[in-house]
Fold:
Amino acid sequence: MQYLILVVVFLYSSMAFPNEDGSITPVRVCQVEKAKYLFRIDLANLILAKTAPVYGDARVTPFRKETSTVSQDRCVVLLKQQQVDLLYLPPKDNLLESFDYIPFDIHAGMLGYRVFIIRENDQRRFDQVESLDDLRRFVGGFGSQWGDFKVFGLNDLPVIGAANTSVLLNMLNHERFDYFHRGLHEAWAEVEANNSKLPNLSVETGLTLRYPFQVYYWFNPSNTELKQRFETGLLLVLQDGSYHALFKEYFQKTVKRARLAERKTINIKYPLPQKSDNWVTEVNHTPFWVEPRWLD
Structure:
């Protein structure tokens, strides 16, 4: 790790400074419309800012003016066609075979812990869940195009799939299924954002699902400079503490609100793709909640 950082610092100090005309290079993305993407976007912009003296000024920019929902499958096609420059998605075999990536978990393990959005009057039913077998009596809802949709089949959990979050929340509200599991940073935010139109939904109070779920930055193979820039920038923000500061800004309150130590944890299977090796081992294998420094 120290050797890599020294190499980065050497390259950083020895390259020319472009963008003298004051222009800002857009890094085009299609994943912009949801709160869950904000940390991934802000981290990308932090990386671009840290590397600006070497590579020039750049900023994450929607690939089109409209910010309506674009499906993950469509975003993958857009990256392949070079209409977007960057994706931030979980590793899947088709992505690993087609694109360049940095095998660094953007969320530092946090997305491996999930809580349920349920109908509030169902809380007593979920109070009785003690095991994976108990959970199999319920039907889940989840994004059919999302990377971890397969956890339901792998663990024999009944599921109904849909295209996006808003559809799933409405289906849950109309009793099409029993729960919608979400990341810690997503569950409360989504319930509160939809409280006026979906007042019956709440975050379940006593359970947590756990599985090894990661999110990477992805690049078109022809865009080697952007990938190199992100590798350089990630090492810089890890070394200078700005990654940790941004992480705390986004997630510290939510992690404490989740009260993970007080919840019953159900571990489920989620095998990572074989090519999904780690880039910064000590970061990827140390869940943020184990290290006190993440929450101080």
Notes: Confidence is low (pLDDT under 50) at residues 1-17, 284-293. The longest helix spans residues 224-240. The radius of gyration is 20 Å. Residues 2-109+214-259+272-294 form a domain with the D-Maltodextrin-Binding Protein; domain 2 fold (CATH 3.40.190.10).
